[in-house]
Amino acid sequence: MNRLTYAVLIGLIGAAILHIVIILALPQFTGKDAYTRVKATGQSHRFHILPDWSNERADADALTNVDPYLKVAVCHFDIARAPLRLLAPSGPSFWSMAVFDANSNEVFSMNDRTSVVGDLDALVATPAQVAQIRKAPGAALTQSIIVEYQGTTGYIVLRTLVPAQSFGPEARAFLDEALCAPLAED
Fold it and tell me: Nearest-CA neighbor of 167 among 72, 69, 67?
């Protein structure tokens, strides 16, 4: 019986120590999730092109583009007041877009092959906003892909392929022209 009591007591003390260590280490990890890092890139409702990663600028907290064959832009949003409109003309050989919630769960994705005529034309809206849009769709939204989004905050990642250095200017122009803005009311 003494050995059982001793094992239970050691287990409880070990669990208490582990919980204290986790609680003391928690501030070290908060604020380093993907959504917080995307929000730190700049103002909302605007695509921000991520700089390419390099050893000289290796900042652990800053978002960077680590793939030399991709150019990446991010946009964080809040659709509590109005749906989010995503627009970009076709151009580069390949692009993809993904919508993530504030917990970094991917909720929707598409690319140039699944879009209408190769253009990015999407609308991210809450279920109530989608119902309102479907009641009286505007002519401008007939070609748009409507994404029903359960939350109100999140972020968009827009990527384009850069298979060779000569494709860089076209990819940069595509990301510069991309629009991530609240839907203007007509």
Answer: 69
